[in-house]
Structure formats: C-alpha cells, structure tokens
Amino acid sequence: MVRVRLKDVADHAGVSVKTVSNVVNNWEYVTDATRERVQKALDELGYRPNLSARSLRTGRTNLIALALPRLHEPYFAELADCVVRAAEDHGLTVLISQTDGRREREQQVVSGFRPQFIDGLLFSPLALEWDDLEEIPGHPPVVLLGERLAAGGAADHVAVDNVAAAQRATQHLVELGRKRIAVIGAPPSKTARTASLRLEGYKRALRKARIRLDKQLLLPVNQLHRADGAAAMATLLDLAPPPDAVFCFNDLLALGALRTLQERGVAVPSEVAVIGFDDIEESRFCSPSLTTISPDKKALAGLAVAALVQRMSVAPDAAPQELHAGFELVERESTMGRRA
Amino acid sequence: MVRVRLKDVADHAGVSVKTVSNVVNNWEYVTDATRERVQKALDELGYRPNLSARSLRTGRTNLIALALPRLHEPYFAELADCVVRAAEDHGLTVLISQTDGRREREQQVVSGFRPQFIDGLLFSPLALEWDDLEEIPGHPPVVLLGERLAAGGAADHVAVDNVAAAQRATQHLVELGRKRIAVIGAPPSKTARTASLRLEGYKRALRKARIRLDKQLLLPVNQLHRADGAAAMATLLDLAPPPDAVFCFNDLLALGALRTLQERGVAVPSEVAVIGFDDIEESRFCSPSLTTISPDKKALAGLAVAALVQRMSVAPDAAPQELHAGFELVERESTMGRRA
DNA sequence: TCGTGACCTTATAACGTTGTACATTACGAA
DNA sequence: TTCGTAATGTACAACGTTATAAGGTCACGA
Q1: CB 3.0-4.6 Å disulfide test: which of A183, A236, A292, B102 passes with A276?
Q2: Residue with CA nearest C10 C1'?
Q3: Does A141 touch chain B (CB under 8 A)?
Q4: Every domain of chain B and the residues it spans
Q5: Do A56 and B61 touch (CB under 8 A)?
Q6: A246-302, pLDDT tens digit by residue?
Q7: pLDDT tens-place string over residues B65-86
Q8: Does domain A162-296+329-336 have CATH number 3.40.50.2300?
Q9: What is the pTM of this model?
Q10: Is the CB of B31 under 7 A from strand C?
C-alpha cells in the first residue's frame, strides 16, 4: 500500500502543494502548462487522495447511510440496488446497514452509526416512531424511505401511495368477479402503518364495489415472511365458505400462500386468485407467476436520494416533505391464468 | 447537527484534550476520579468522535469494502448479510459495492474505490483475473471470496470445495437410481472457474458410479439466472430420451428449470429429479422445495473477514492462503418427493 | 525534610487536505 | 516608462484527533 501525498507530487512537479490540490480539484485558474506538468506528476506517482484528510478539512464525507431491516429480503435488496445507483449519480457512496427491524438497532443507527462520518441517512424504520427521531440530538439529515411510518413527522418521507395502490389491487380482484376477497397481512397493531394504509385502500375498493366487509377474511401476521403467508392461507381455506381471492400485503406472504394452495390442490386463479405487493424478482418466475403491485423502485430511490441531497446542502431546515413514487399493477398468472 | 469536539469536553471538565481522548480510548492510566468527571462531561455534551480526524491521525478507517456482482441476487445478498455480521465482531464496518461482474467496474473497485479510505477489500470477482490484481499498484489488502477465480494467485482465497460439493450433489442423484444426469450451467468458457470445478466433481461422481459421460447432457448458460435455467431445461426435455435428473450449478438455474418442468407437466422428482447449489432462502419455499448444496455462508464470511483482518494488521506479506468453508447436502422435495 | 519513583496529566506536534490572504507575473493602457 | 488589473501561484493556518515526550503530583522511605 503505497502512500503518495500532495506534497510528494508537488515536489516531483516543482510546484506548491496547493497548486497540486487545485489541479486535483479542477480549479479554474491554473495555466495549461502547469496543469499538464502537475497531471503528469500525478499520473507518474499514482496519486490517490486521502479521503479522511479531505473529509476532515471540508467537513463532508460524501457518504450516506442506507438503513433497512433485512438486506436478504428481496424487496430491500432490490431497493438498495436502486439507491446505490441513484446515489452514484450525485457522487455519493452508500453505506448499507441492517437494523433487523429492532428498535434498539434502529436507534443506534440514527444516533451513532459511524458518527460524524455520514452526511445523511436514508432510513426504512420498522419499530422507530417519529418522536424517537426528534429526541435524538445531533442526528444527521434523515429521509424516511418506505411506508412503515405515518406521514406528518419530522423528516421527509418517500413512499408509494399505499392507499391508492391497495385500492387498485383490490379493484383488480373485483373486476375479475371475485366477491370474497381476503387479506393476508392486516395490521396486527397500531404501529403497522403500511398495513393500515393498505387496509384502508382495500376497504375503499370494497365500498366502491358495494361488497360488505367480512372481518373473518382479514388475517394479521407476525412477520411478512413466506411462512406467515402459508399459515394464514391455511386458516383461510378452513373457512366455510373459503375466499375466492386473496390480497397479500407483500409478495413474500403471497408466495407462502401460493405454496399452501398448491399443497392443498386448490387451483390458482380459478378457485382462488392471489395478488401481492412489491414485485420482487421471484414473483415473475414462480409458478404460477404472481400478479402484484409494482412500486417504481427506481423513482422511489431517486426521489429519496434527491430529497436527502437537498436537505444536506440547500435547505436543511425546510418543512418536511411528503413524496410519492408511482406504482403499477402487473397482471400475471395468479389472477389471469396461464396464456395459451 | 451539533458538533462537540474533544476540546469542548475538555473545557467543560477542566482537563486537557488528551485526557479526554484517553478516557474515550479507555487508556489505562487515568484515575477513577478524572475518568468519572470526564465521562460526565462526555455524556452531558453528547460527544461523538469525528471519525475522519481519527482516521487521518491513526491511518485506519476500520472500514472494509465488500465488492460483489449483484446485490439483488439472493446468494450474494445473504452472503453480504453474513459478512456484515462477521465484520461487526471485529469492529469493522462494511461498505458494499456492486460490480455487475463487469471487468471495468471490478478494476475500479480494486484500484480506486474510495481510495485510502478502506483498510481492506473482500472481493467476489467475476471477470477479473489474477494478473489484473497484481498489476494494480497500491491496492489495499484483498481477500477473494467465492469460486470465480482459480486457486494459486496473489491473494487469500475463501470458498467451498466446489469439486467435493458437486461430487456430493451428483452422488445424491446416483443414489436415487438416476442414470441420465444432466448439468445446467456447464462452463461456457475457460474463465468460468467455478463451473469447471463443479463439472469436475460431477465427472468424478459419474466415474465412481460407472456411468458414461454424455456430452449432450451438459448445457452451458450465458448467465446464472432463472431464465437461462428455464431455457436449458426446455432443451433437455426435447432430447430423446430426456434426462431423469438435473444438477443445476446454482439455485436460480434450478428454479428456472423447475418452472419449465411444471409448465410441461413433467413430474418432479418422479420423472426428473432436480438439485441446485447455493441454498438461497427461496429454495426452501418454492414448490416443490429444492434439494441443494448449502455452502456454510456464515463460515465463509467468518473465514474471509478473519483472513482479511490478519492481512490488514498482523501478516500483510504472508504467503496467500487457500481456505475452504464447509457445505451440506440439504434434501428436499425436488429429489425426495413430498412427505406424507 | 528531601529525594525518588510511580503514576497521572498536559503541551505540542503531527496526520493530509483545502480555504484565506497575499505575492508574483503578464500585459495592455496611459 | 509606469501603473492598474486580472490571472496565476504560494505560504500558512486550520479541520479534530492521537502519539510523543516532557512535566506535575503524590506517597513513601531515608
């Protein structure tokens, strides 16, 4: 590991340290002759800036953190991918951090994760509440990503319009002629804000279609995993009569549900239609492939990074914004059947 | 964003800056009285160290980078998870970087990714060769993770024993009485080292079972994705006679193959048994669930991080090591059938 | 009472970079 | 020739931290 400093380059080129720095930073007032000579020295010695020193001097690291519950959940992995790319466009590097959705780790991330080392934080909290955020002194600029927190808090918030998206999903099932539309992933507690919003969208669609809400068909889950979806589906199939459609509040739940349906020999979509939410890659390839709401992850990431950049530099104290990314209904086999 | 420096704490506690630093760093020779007074000041002011300054002074960032092809591929996402956890145990933070498997980005990662900013690099290259690595001047300590590079190069290398693992997988199919065992993911070129190793294991198992190698049954793929697996499986089914078992060189290929089998109405495992490699989470939950080789990802990550730490501090110039993590054959429905 | 250590604390100087203020040069106009 | 002005380069200090070495304090034995 060779270490070449500005001083070494300066000596080699016969100029001052600051002139080399000026060349490195593309400062305007450097003669072409000097620039060329310095550049040659830079190349010859293979200069690489020491970012610690630069950060110390400028007070900026160009590093942002992305804190999310679980990296190996496909939705978050795909989102992280988008965020990294979006950040690159702004010259930012992303530090990914997992919270496991545990309150204590989330708190740690906001308050202490590599303190004074990140310029900003993109945060997908599960357990943390607004109040917690405001309590923490000296936290970096934060933009909240995703739907777990309700609107109206202390930081910018970027998410899809969950109510509208859920309404669209439910409406799709209604249009297929389904009457007994179950929900897997109903809010187990008041803190599950996403679930509440999606349930609201579901209710609106039912109301519009003049279908009476049957509380039996609303199944809460502990976690949003395949196993929970599978168990919930089993419960639903034991009802009399069973539902003719299921709206799962994320794709993993839906995949679990599909598995149960397959095991029990229930035909999808003819007997039970299934729709998910997230559009993870797996949903395109499972069998039957899964109809789902596809949030525009690219837009989500782009909006979030842009909002964070804004807050980091231009307008740190502007009023919190509420930003919505688009979504799309992707119709696949789990509601439309297999094509010939 | 409040900024509290050691100086502020020192003034507040009525001691020197260095004494505060000593307390922060748990230095031995500080009286309990002083330590307590300083600690109180630290707490009251909410001191957070400036890591840029610390890094500048100590020359270490305690930051390592993990460079892998695609974060949204489940195997890598799960591996990244393990690496982050393993690094935490050593007090290291992991900076995750995606290369897309493109040579140019991989080169960039090794030579210039946040230069002088990371203490070490964990690297899963796809395109890069050993020679490239040695050419790059002043690159940080590197440990190679995964099987894409052959053994015997310029850096430590951590992987599962691909030959042994592939042999075990093939042997499992043999034990089920299968005779026409196809391979999806055979090496398309000489650079696909993993594939070559796995093919070697496959051949050994056939030899041991006295089954003649049929080159028709070896299907190369462009990428290791579901779509490629699906396409390859279609080709295999058109053979006469078709294979009675398929060894896919990763789980995604296998999932693609399963989808084709299901579409064509071929029974798994009775007509065709399928086995994968990686044990991604999806394999436990797909239908039929997928028999696969499960590399010990935790061990893989642990070994890699430990080797990197070793190289970063203790023995930077020791001879390159070749390290193997364990693996396990996980029998599921795609070879064993559904249990009652 | 005065050394003499042992133990604790502090002043000072770096680490490599960039911002500020100033020095130098070139060149056209008076 | 001299001056004014803009263009370009330089010296120095500072960012917040830790390492070094020197200084201070105190208990204790002579």
Answers
A1: A292
A2: B16
A3: yes
A4: 6-49, 162-295+329-336
A5: no
A6: 999 999 999 999 989 988 999 999 999 999 999 988 898 888 999 999 999 999 999
A7: 999 888 878 888 889 989 999 9
A8: yes
A9: 0.83
A10: yes
